[in-house]
Amino acid sequence: MSHVGIDEIEAARDRIGGLIRRTPVEPSAYLTKATGQPVFLKFEHHQFTGSFKMRGATNAVEQLSEGERARGVTGASTGNHGRALAFAARRAGVRCVICMSALVPKNKVEAIASEGAEIRIVGRSQDDAQEEVDRLVREEGMVMVPPFDDARVIAGQGTLGLELLEDVPDLKVALVQLSGGGLISGVAAALKARRPDIRVIGITMSRGAAMHASLGAGKPVSVEELPTLADSLGGGIGLGNRYTFEMVRALVDEVVLLSEEEIADGVRHAYRHERQVVEGGGVVGLSALLHGHVRPDGPVATILTGASIDMGLHYRLISGEHVDLMQDAG
């Protein structure tokens, strides 16, 4: 079993410290009153490129050899990893090709292109996009930087856990997005290395929750990808998963699934009560608290992971419209 440990995470913090933002942790007065416990929000949507993915991508790019830099990097993405990798590669002077499925929102595709990456739209799933990445590695010699199942990426994301503990030293519960598992694996490894008593709860959407299905099956499995407000949490975990499946199984205490309306409520809450514009996947911790899926018995923190939401969709949500992206897709 391959795990990324605290030594790799601390090394990642030293490596990327001058290249990322140390984002603030802010108390939520509304959620503190609602839950009866101190609630803290990590404003990672204020990170460069608008999401936590900047940490893992930067840690990976900074470790490339000269030969690897000359060959260029590629990766599959549901949006945020692609933009982060494109940004980190451009800063390092490295060619970057990002492969995505047709389900990735247009605003995220445009944001990646604006960072100078070459774009490939392939199929209707993360697995389809990954096939193009594999071809680029095989035929053009490019270097793959995966969005989650990579030791360098996991260690970079784990730096969030170190910061959370420094800012909330009496933390008892961490609510962390669960998708492919790179973020929650790194954060849980950091938190539990320092404080094994901290509960780490994974939060994800009901539609196409690949890691949840895999945990239930006892092995990585494929699931159908469906349109969801939490699009950044979509995609499979890879049938040949090397790191995150076992790390999630070992380190995550519980998994919570959310409905589309609960995710919508999180977007509305972030705007109305926290004065923040956050994407659907970024608010799932808020949603879990708002709807009573988690009842903390001490200080709790969650991460607002990204701000990459189409502003037209955001307006529809905060205006109170019931939005079902499956119906919108026809």
Quick one: CATH class of the largest domain?
Alpha Beta
Strand content: 5-15%
The residue ranges in which pLDDT falls below 50 over 5 or more consecutive positions are none
Kindly report the CATH topology of the largest domain: Rossmann fold
Mean pLDDT: 96
Number of domains: 2
Helical segment tally?
Answer: 15
H/E element order: HEHEHHEHEHEHEHEHEHHEHHEHH
Lateral strand order in the biggest sheet? 1-2-10-7-8-9
CATH architecture verdict of the largest domain: 3-Layer(aba) Sandwich
Structural class: alpha/beta
Helical residues, percent = 40-55%
Q: What characteristic shape results from the CA principal axes?
A: globular
Number of strands: 10
How far apart are the termini? 42 Å
Question: Main beta sheet, described?
Answer: 6 strands, mixed
The gyration radius over C-alpha positions equals: 18 Å
